[in-house]
Amino acid sequence: MSTTWITVGTPLPSGPMRIAVTPAGVVTSDYLPGDTGASVPACTDPAKIDAVTGRITEYLAGRRRAPDLPIDWSRAGGAHRVVLRTLLTEVPYGRTITYGELAALSGVFEGITEPGLAARTVGQMMAANPVPLLVPCHRVVAADGIGGFGGGRVGIEVKRWLLTLEGVLEPTLDWNGPDWAEAAGRG
């Protein structure tokens, strides 16, 4: 299945997102695209470009509760897919869930008795989420705080930004919230 890439401008602390699409849907999204070191084919399908760019822009501008783009699940299988689908369907906009609560809700860790193992495993699954933002792993938090997020300090700032957008956290004075799309001429 051929994969092509779309770059979407965002107000996120990480900068633009890169979104990989296949005929089945979005297969990968990346907050921290950096230099891939290789030439990747750009998407040339105007309908896909418009849908991906428009829906992500609308979500980040606070005009949409989810990107609602089709997902190509080929990069997540088994228990990982079950946990990601549980997150997607059971944890709505503006809500959070702890790693341990998501582990229990998914049902894939029944019989695990080692304290914290299921929660740690869910944390690893969130770090390996192939489609962040579409499957909102930013909504999964630690029992005692915000928890982690890939990409180190910038990743945590992305998580804070998204949780602020959704009303989970209070905005800080430097938060560049939903008005960014209008200011950038995208609204």
Folded structure, characterized:
This protein has 187 residues and is an alpha+beta fold. It folds into two domains: 4-60; 76-165, Arc Repressor Mutant, subunit A (Orthogonal Bundle). Helices cover 35% and strands 11% of the residues. It contains six helices and five strands, in the order βββααβααβαα. The strands form two sheets. A three-stranded antiparallel β-sheet has the order 1-2-3, with helices on one face. β1 (4-8) and β2 (17-22) form a beta hairpin. The radius of gyration is 16 Å and the shape is globular.
List key phrases describing it.
Arc Repressor Mutant, subunit A; Methylated-DNA--protein-cysteine methyltransferase; 2 domains; WH-like_DNA-bd_sf; MethylDNA_cys_MeTrfase_AS; transferase; methyltransferase; alpha+beta
Rg (CA only)? 16 Å
**At the third CATH level, what is the topology name of the largest domain?**
Arc Repressor Mutant, subunit A
CATH evolutionary superfamily of the largest domain: Winged helix-like DNA-binding domain superfamily/Winged helix DNA-binding domain
- How many E-type strands? 5
Cα-to-Cα separation, first versus last residue: 33 Å
Helix proportion: 25-40%
The shape is globular
Beta-strand percentage range: 5-15%
Give the mean pLDDT: 91
> What structural class should be given to the helix and strand makeup?
alpha+beta
Give the SSE order as H and E letters: EEEHHEHHEHH
Total count of helical runs of at least 4 residues: 6
CATH architecture of the largest domain: Orthogonal Bundle
> What is the class of the largest domain in the CATH system?
Mainly Alpha
How would you sum up the major sheet? 3 strands, antiparallel
Q: What strand line-up does the widest sheet have?
A: 1-2-3
Number of domains: 2
Pfam families: DNA_binding_1
Family: Belongs to the MGMT family.
EC number: 2.1.1.63
Keywords: DNA damage, DNA repair, Methyltransferase, Transferase
